[in-house]
Specification:
The protein is an alpha+beta fold. The chain is built from four helices and nine strands, in the order βββαβββββααβα. It has a domain of 84 residues: OB fold (Dihydrolipoamide Acetyltransferase, E2P) (Beta Barrel), CATH 2.40.50.
């Protein structure tokens, strides 16, 4: 369920680094906690963010959750399919449910992110 080539944040986002860019989404754990997703708000292409900045929100039948970026960079693409059909976050959060692609700032620090195994331990602790 949690892919080894992804990195994970304590805010339940995943990051897949692809050279100078990364793809960002929310984890399966996060979508389970939210329940049925009904609305997704994403940033505009060209916007720049520092690590831990709020970049949008996800609304479900249970709650509204803010989205944060665990890396600094510039948004180069948004997944309009998720905006048009938010339920894809519930059915496929780690693939088709990606949210944005960012050009990572030079020198961006990824050391605070967790491996898949570390993330599994982290969420096991949250479920306890």
């Amino acid at each position: 369920m949690y892919l080894d080539e992804y990195l994970y944040s304590k805010e339940h986002e995943w990051v897949h680094v692809e050279g100078e860019t990364c793809v960002l989404g929310v984890t399966d754990f996060a979508q389970h906690q939210l329940g049925d997703v009904v609305f997704v708000e994403l940033p505009e292409v060209g916007q720049t963010f520092e690590a831990d900045d709020e970049i949008g929100s996800i609304e479900s039948v249970k709650a509204v959750a803010e989205l944060y970026t665990p890396v600094a960079g510039e948004v180069v693409e948004t997944n309009e399919a998720v905006v048009d059909d938010p339920e894809v976050l519930n059915s496929d959060p780690h693939n088709n449910g990606w949210l944005i692609k960012m050009k990572i700032d030079a020198g961006a620090d990824l050391s605070g992110l967790m491996s898949a195994d570390q993330y599994k331990e982290f969420i096991d602790g949250e479920d306890a």
